[in-house]
Amino acid sequence: MMLELDIRTLLVVTTLASIGSAIALVFLWLSQTRHNGAGFWAIGMSCISMASILISGQGIFPDFLSFVIANSFYVFGFVFILHGIRIFADRPPLLFLNFSVPLITAVLFYYFYFIDKNINIRIATLSTAFMITCLTIVITLLSNKKAPWRSAGFSVAAVFGLFGLFHGTRGVIALISPFDSFLMYPSMSTSFVFLAGIFILGAIPITLILLTYAALEAELRITSLAVNQSASSIIITDTNGAIEFVNPAFTEKTGYLLDDVIGKNPRVLHSGETLPEKYDTLWSTLAEGNTWRGEFHNRKKNGELFWEIASIAPVKQRNGIISHYVAVKEDITALKNAEERILHMANHDVLTGLPTRRLAMDRLMSALAIAKRKETKIAVLFVDIDGFKKINDSIGHDAGDYVLKETATRLSTSVRAVDTVARVGGDEFWILLTNIPDKDCVIVIAEKILSAVAKPYTLDHDEICIGISIGIALYPDNSVNPKELVHLADQAMYKIKRQGKNNYAFV
Q1: Which of 144, 161, 186, 484 could form an S-S bond across to 3 if both were Cys, CB 3.0 to 4.6 Å?
Q2: For residue range 124-154, what is the model confidence (pLDDT) as tens digits?
Q3: Residues in contact with 90: Cβ distance below 8 Å, sequence separation at least 6, in sequence order
């Protein structure tokens, strides 16, 4: 009687252990944020707990439930756990095994209980099913030698390997030395079966949780290394904008150490060059749960200005609440400088550094808009060097380049800083005079230009003397159209060419 009580007690403990394990794995599944197989572990252990409940209810439940269905649930439970482990290890599912093992087991259990009663075949059938699933689990966990969770996988493989080995041995013994006893008959072998089951049922959730933690820890370690070794500056703040983390790239690029910025707002980088409206848009975008992308003109700790392109995103918890903001930023100062150089080269003459025709026309149109609003005058001067081709042919192109550069300098110093001097052709220049009071003012400037260019050019102790012809068109006197003003000034310049050169003429 004492041994019978022990078996009943072991059955209850086995049932409680399976239920506790199922609850633990259900909570593990609920805590996951992605599909990693934990849901199948929870389903599998729930099947095992249901099987334990049905077996412990022998004499209360019909035999079909407490024997056939209960043992089928055990097999289903281990198959579900195997399927979950295959998903965890990123292995394709074994569909044939998943369906064939439970089905064959159920059929054999039914046959050898209701048609041809044979407890030893039933034991061998169940043991074979356990051995196949456990062996497959072991192979799945140990086949990936580069998995970051491999060490934790050994513990799971050991538990299932021992369970498979135990049941494989039990199945062989059942076939070689047949049992004559009923399951509930008190014996050392029966007690050992239940004790082994209790150990396995308690160890399965522990090792699976350890496996999940090892995978998560490896992922976090890789993420941490990636963030710390990233060439991009990374900043993490709370929802109030207080900095909680910066990576080494941030320190290297800005000069601010971790202790300098922890708890402070990223505005420590502000240079005053970025418009306040941009920051308002940034925070409103983040508050809506969206990612903001844009550029900042910030200042380093040493006062040096630099450009950054940033992507700032909210970090949302599982309930959708924003807990942090993360900014990933790249220093684009070199790119900005290159863009400025390219833009300057596109809009400025390479030889003289003066604006090109396109930039000069843009400035003319802008100046006309301002002059129209303020009701002021504008003068367009079309300047052409007299006999420039003769300089190139007789002295050489180097001398021609020198004359062009020196002429550009003399023209620029003859007008105000707000005026524009542009090179629009080989030896042709435009001069744009804005906000002029009257025609007499233009005459003074034209004569000043003629006088400046008339001075000899000295090159290698040789003197070069040139003259220029200037055509002048006025806004709004001659035209209000920018292209027509240029055309009229060009015509006036050719008029001077025909009349003897080295002079100026109005339209």
Answers
A1: 186
A2: 898 899 999 999 999 999 988 888 888 889 9
A3: 144
Long-range contacts of 196-203 (CB under 8 A, 24+ apart): 196/163, 196/166, 197/14, 197/17, 198/10, 198/13, 198/14, 198/17, 200/159, 200/162, 200/163, 201/14, 201/17, 201/18, 201/21, 201/48, 201/52, 202/17, 202/20, 202/21, 203/159
Helical spans, DSSP H, in 295-396: 333-347, 357-374, 388-394
Q: Which residues pair with 308 in a beta bridge?
A: 296, 331
Beta strand 467-475 with 233-238 is: unpaired
Residue 211 near residue 137, CB atoms below 8 Å: no
pLDDT at 104: 92
Number of helices (H), then strands (E), belonging to the chain: the values are: 17, 12
Residue in 138, 156, 286 with CA at minimum distance from that of residue 211: 156
90: left (phi over 0), alpha (psi -120 to 50) or beta: left
Q: Phi and psi (nearest 5°) for 270?
A: -60, 140
- Residue the block writes with tokens 């055990």: 74
Residue 501: phi, psi to the nearest 5?
70, 180
Write out residues in the chain with pLDDT < 70, as ranges: 1-8, 178-194
Q: Are 148 and 174 in contact (CB under 8 A)?
A: no
Compute the distance between CA of residue 379 and CA of residue 356 in angstroms, rounded to an integer: 18
Q: Is residue 307 within 8 Å of 333, Cβ to Cβ?
A: yes
* Locus of tokens 């756990």: 81
> How far, in Å, CA of 44 to CA of 76, rounded?
7
**Token pair of 391, please?**
């300089």
Query: For 506, phi and psi rounded to 5 degrees?
Result: -85, 160
